[in-house]
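Researcher: Please translate sequence to structure tokens.
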Amino acid sequence: MSIDKEKLKILLYGGGAVGSYFAGALYLNGHDVSLLTRGDHLNMIKKSGLKMNTHWGKFISKLKVVKNIEESYDVVVLAVKTYSIKEILPDLKKLSNSNNYLICIQNGTFTYDFLSKEIPNANILNGLTYVDAVRNSPGSVDQFGEEAKIIFGKDSISDKEEKDLVFLESILNSEKVQVEFSSNIQKSIWEKLIMVAAIGSIMSFANSSASEIFSDNKLVSMLENMVSEMNLAARSIGVNLDSDYEMNTIQGLKDRSAEIHASLKEDLDNQRPLELNEILGEAIRTGKINQVEMNTCEEIFNKLSPYISGGKKYS
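Model: Translation complete:
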């Protein structure tokens, strides 16, 4: 599928911190952007615009906000939690057509695999994001650091399809939204899945900050075991990460430990539903199907699993 224009009509489906930031930033870049959200967040943006406090400065984004599907779009970016994908499937079927792209930016492999089966004729792109953003109050979003990246790709594509995706990358890419086409999207997905699943799960398991994790040798050892087990799970399905991936991932987490915000830990603290089954659970299932021992991952998963549905204080 080819896109032959440089200003796109884009829907960000989901008004959490990530969806709000990318919606606002893409609007500032000149695209026709809508954000699907609800409640006070929608009302405040309608009234005053989206207030953005970012690494590049403070802005007000006068993007459109909607609470229902009303139009068609060139690009739909799915920015909801993974556990919500099945619930919004009817909307996604309405949104998808032969002339647009649906980009999945959830952690893990579930969303892309599920939608590819449920909407087989849609142009669905596998993807991920690296961005540190929080929504502290309705109508606003705070973003930290110089990285605000969306990576997308698709397995087994033709030269023509790759050319189209490289062009899409060039249309969307900017300083505030760094967009990257990956020719090995499975590798990109697993690199992030392992990192996010490991640090978020161990922080939740230990009820500790990332800095506290790295001051405890036993917890560091558990973290290293998780990264190693999930790397073996990836390798078992033909996803070969770099030989120094494990070492670099642990060191990178340690170097950034003072500033790491894990959404899994925040959801657990606030007794919200957890993306545990779709991220760490997916890695465990992949490993076990292929006879990979996932002992540390399973220990942590089993401790956290009673809290998956939310509404329960962790102890």
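Researcher: Any highlights?
Model: The beta strands are 9-13, 32-36, 50-54, 57-61, 64-66, 75-78, 101-104, 124-134, 140-153, 178-181.
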